[in-house]
Design brief:
The chain is α/β, with parallel strands linked by helices and 226 residues long. It has a domain of 155 residues: Aldolase class I (TIM Barrel). Helices cover 33% and strands 21% of the residues. A 9-stranded mixed beta sheet has the order 3-1-2-4-5-6-7-8-9. Helix 6 links the parallel strand 8 and strand 9. It is globular, with a radius of gyration of 17 Å. The two termini are 22 Å apart. The structure holds iron/sulfur cluster.
């Protein structure tokens, strides 16, 4: 399969924040978020090959229970993802898959961490990826299927308070339980996150959503492999 990086760190976002985890980052994505924080998997994808057996060996060497398979978009390499999860599950790992929730497949995973992309992710209208991104970024049927089949969290990257109207509409249309929704500030530097934290916490309080910091950005900024 095509991958970008593999490293041992702590989970920086969401329900398992702070838990030591091995991150396996697949390469390639079907979307093109304008603020993508891993452009080396989407806009300019790295192209390193690794077999499922090699991935399992590299992941298990850390003797760490929690594994996070992230991207890029892991579900676009469907068969390899299914095999990788089957192997890791058989070895007793807790598996989180971080996905943009535009492709569904049955996999052995313990937490599906969806991050559906809001309008604020659109590339500029004259970008050649605009139409593809705008058409493909929200798949209500896929989000619903994951919610029905797995323990889930639904993380939204929020740029301005105006984004809340879109989140509320999706919550209603797809019937997303409020307690599974997490809001995270958009930004790749501690300063950018800090500017959005206070009003975002207020919006979480008003709507019954959970606030999620982005601890890896607070500690390491946009440094890779940490
Ligand atoms: S879905 Fe994720 S990996 Fe893909 S372009 Fe958006 S932020 Fe980047």
């Amino acid at each position: 399969m095509k991958f970008s990086e593999l490293f041992h760190t702590i989970q920086g976002e969401g329900q398992l924040i702070g838990v030591p985890s091995v991150f396996f980052r697949t390469s390639y994505c079907n979307l093109r978020c304008v603020w993508c924080d891993t452009p080396y998997t989407s806009w300019h994808p790295e192209d390193r090959d690794i077999t499922v057996a090699e991935s399992v060996a590299a992941i298990t060497q850390y003797r760490c229970k929690h594994v996070v398979i992230t991207g890029g978009e892991p579900f676009i390499q469907t068969q390899a993802l299914i095999e990788l999860c089957r192997e890791l599950d058989a070895q007793g790992h807790h598996i989180t898959i971080e996905t943009n929730a535009t492709r569904f497949a049955k996999v052995d995973a313990h937490l599906i961490s969806m991050s559906p992309k809001l309008r604020n992710s659109n590339p500029s209208a004259d970008d050649r990826f605009f139409n593809r991104h705008e058409r493909g970024r929200i798949r209500p049927d896929v989000i619903r299927k994951f919610l029905d089949a797995y323990p889930c969290q639904v993380k939204f990257v929020v740029d301005t308070p105006e984004d809340l109207a879109e989140i509320r509409a999706l919550q209603t249309d797809i019937r997303i339980p409020a307690e599974t929704i997490l809001l995270m500030p958009q930004g790749t530097t501690p300063t950018a996150l800090e500017q959005k934290q206070r009003w975002l916490v207020d919006l979480c309080k008003e709507n019954g959503y959970r606030y999620s910091p982005r601890v890896h950005v607070d500690i390491w900024g946009d440094k890779r492999g940490v």
